[in-house]
Amino acid sequence: MTIPQARQLGRPLMNLVKFKGTPILQQLRLEERLLRNSSDNWCIINDGTNIPAIVMGLSGKPSELLEIRSVLRDQIPVVRRFTGGGTVIVDHGTIFVTLICNREAVPTVQPYPRSIMQWSSLLYNEVFQGIGDFKLRENDYVFGNHKFGGNAQSITKDRWIHHTSFLWEYEARNMAYLKLPTRAPEYRLVRNHMDFLCGMKDYLPRSAFISKTVEAIENHFLTKPVIMDIDAVTSGTDYVHTTKLLSEQELEEAYARELSGEIPVSNLMI
Amino acid sequence: MALRMWASSTANALRVSSSRTHLSPALSLSRCFSSVLDGLKYASSHEWVKHEGSVATIGITDHAQDHLGEVVFVELPETGGSVAATKGFGAVESVKATSDINSPISGEVIEVNTKLTETPGLINSSPYEDGWMIKIKPSSPAELESLMGAKEYTKFCEEEDASH
């Protein structure tokens, strides 16, 4: 279907790509390319990622956010993504949903963080209708006062991306790689990761979440399934990504600065 | 390669109010929440430029900082680099988002506001003064003519907010 034909139906066209177990670094690099180099709308769903990885926002500092010694010891990959926001540890229990939109595709949304966040919450209200006490709380998706979805965005002149990592379930021991963030939402109070987070698995089946999400997106967009060879799309060297995998050397240098007292070492709290 | 300016998150974001009375006489108070200064030129992507002789200073407007929220990180180009009209030259991080900053005009970067390293909140508290981002040597001063003046930009903001 052409774009003019889709528009006649009143909904903008959106390419829908589904992955399962795709590495998070590869997914983020694809998203960065699509935001910058494509003029289409995209929805990307990645049902779990293959190995545990830590993902920081653009301005994330390992010494402030990570228990670097444990991260180095266990060789956990650390990715700095191109969007803002906080730090997460993702694995097979994380479901990723990404929306990349032309500004004109959602004309009622201003290209600013709060406006996009508010619009996204309306979409997910449709997904979680009647399920748990779902709401957008500050910038997180919660059931009650327990966070299960973390959001981040990047906004360009004419396009924006809003991506979410949903906790289907998580490994408690993985949370030990993360320090308590200095910048945290007010509703978190001083709760540790285990008291603050919850998993979606207690609320609905995994496949139901994905199908309900697609349904909600189809209320707003005319979706077109796209089969994508992500290796082929992301393997070229023509695009210089902001998203990067931190090297062992970078982490070691950050740890050395921390030990030298340049950066305060926070207490580990589980 | 962009100069990464790591920032402290401790700056308090001071919200600019159109009800302030201690502003300079050159200030035009718009009917919307944000303030707009006379004497500057404005881009539709909400950056301002102040042209003084052979130097132009660039930053983001009060409208932009208000909509972005507390700025916690700024990424700016290095001196000696070039910027192009309507193209991105850096980014700010606020809330959970990185947002591109686009240059209203083209030129060579001759100075970067290093205070934004430790105090990115200057963009919120003083978007037109202490929160300036870069100074450039304009390569095509005629580009200024396609930008909006204060009145036009004020109306633009009002219409943009009203339509959402």
Can you put this structure into words, describing what you see?
The complex is a heterodimer of chains A (270) and B (164). Chain A has an eight-stranded mixed β-sheet, with helices on both faces. In chain A, strands 5-3-4-12 form a four-stranded mixed β-sheet, covered by helices on one side. The termini of chain A are far apart. Residues 266-270 of chain A have low confidence and may be disordered. Chain A has 270 residues and is α+β, with helices and mostly antiparallel strands. Chain A has one domain (3-259): 2-Layer Sandwich (BirA Bifunctional Protein, domain 2). Chain A contains ten helices and twelve strands. Chain A is globular, with a radius of gyration of 19 Å. Chain B is of the alpha+beta class and 164 residues long. At the A-B interface, helix 5 and strand 9 of A face strand 7, strand 9 and strand 10 of B. Strand 9 (146-155) of chain A pairs parallel with strand 10 (97-102) of chain B, so a sheet runs across the interface. Chain B: Keywords: Lipoyl, Mitochondrion, Transit peptide. Chain B: This is Glycine cleavage system H protein.
